[in-house]
């Protein structure tokens, strides 16, 4: 396969092709790289706009043609800057959506693990055995309360004392 056909069919890592697409981490990294590149281009265009504005002011009424050319370039740069702003907004939205999807996937996976763990814990529990155990506990608590009451009551000692 030629380099050109590889280029147009889409390059990428062999691991990405085997899985059917990039991982969320790979996609997020690429989106962040694109955001950084566009931010740098934004800064560059902003300095170019300022420079063209300075040139236009410098030429002012002395050289109207040069001033108009500088303003036209400034206008072109502003148009490019607006396009980059729109592209950045789209990329930020896509990155946030991908991050949210990845988070939701992880949460769902962890909830599945928790459900499996709960199922495993409850596997050896029988509802009838639990009811019997709870009744036994209640009976033993009643016995303990009766014993405590018997010990804490003064068994007729108050009647024996005469003032």
TrEMBL record:
Matching InterPro entries: Snf7_fam (IPR005024)
Transport is among the record's keywords: yes
Keyword vocabulary terms for this entry: Coiled coil, Cytoplasm, Endosome, Membrane, Protein transport, Transport
Subcellular location: Cytoplasm, Cytosol; Late endosome membrane
One cellular component (GO) term of this entry: late endosome membrane
Annotated membrane topology: Peripheral membrane protein
Family to which the UniProt record says this protein belongs: Belongs to the SNF7 family.
Name of the protein this chain belongs to: CHM4C protein
Gene expressing this chain: Chmp4c
